[in-house]
Write a structure and sequence with these properties.
mainly beta, Immunoglobulin-like, 2 helices
Length: about 250
């Protein structure tokens, strides 16, 4: 306020002392009113007064939102006994492949427990139904179920030198002779576990080649009174044969 009055007095003094020579004096201006003078002084004072910059409002940062951490549920897998359902009669061997001897023949619809696997489940190691140990079963005739994926990958045992199959046990026969032929019925017990099949010979000539696990055959041959016959039944594999034979003559 003190500055305002000082500036007002200065301007009044300047205006009152300003005179010009008579010859050059401009026409007299209209007298200045006190209201106009105060307006001029206020405008001059406002122009000379520094203007304070407007205050900038600073935003207060918000605290970070809390992160909700959910507990992870722990899932314990359920173990179920791994088993195989045999889809067709198949040999179960001491190792993976025909170079290993057959330990047992697993019948269709037999269910066996799995203890191991080999080469992407191409073979399964299972408990033999008679409880006498384990054997290797080809996966082609097996339908797995249960926790088979948890079974360990097994290493095959060393191969052994193959042996000839056991000969047919208890070979017996019956025959009927007529005027022109003879009918012969042969039966035996299959005790071999690794045979590829059975071959039957009549008087030294092969009559038929039967599949593995065969237990009998009926043959018809030309005959007359006094004709003699010898039949040989051979179980065979790559290592050799096991043989049984019978002989008779037509009366």
């Amino acid at each position: 306020m003190k500055n305002f009055f000082l500036f007002s007095s200065l301007i009044l003094l300047i205006l009152s002392s300003c005179t010009l020579p008579a010859a050059e004096q401009a026409p007299a201006a209209a007298p200045t009113t006190s209201g106009q003078l105060e307006t001029m002084v206020a405008a001059t004072f406002a122009a000379l007064t520094p203007t304070a910059a407007p205050a900038t409002e600073t935003a207060t940062p918000l605290p970070p939102s809390p992160t909700l951490v959910l507990p992870t549920a722990s899932v314990t897998p359920t173990f179920s006994t791994p088993v195989l359902l045999v889809s067709a009669d198949t040999n179960c061997r001491s190792g993976p492949g025909q170079s290993y001897p057959v330990l047992v023949v697993l019948k269709e619809k037999t269910q066996v427990e799995v203890t191991g696997r080999y080469q992407n489940n191409s073979y399964w190691i299972v408990k033999m139904p008679n409880g006498s140990g384990e054997c290797w079963m080809w996966g082609e005739f097996a339908t797995p179920s249960g926790s088979v994926a948890s079974m360990p990958e097994m290493t095959p045992p060393p191969t052994s030198t193959p042996a000839p199959p056991a000969p047919p046990r208890g070979l017996s026969y019956s025959f009927t002779c007529s005027f022109s032929d003879v009918t012969v019925n042969l039966t035996w017990t299959d005790v071999a576990i690794d045979e590829q099949g059975y071959k039957i010979f009549r008087n030294g000539e092969q009559v038929v080649d039967l599949p593995a696990q065969s237990v009998g055959y009926t043959d018809v041959a030309v005959a007359s009174s006094g004709s003699a016959f010898t039949y040989n039944v051979l179980a065979y594999n790559a290592a050799g044969t096991g043989e049984a034979s019978i002989s008779f003559s037509c009366p």
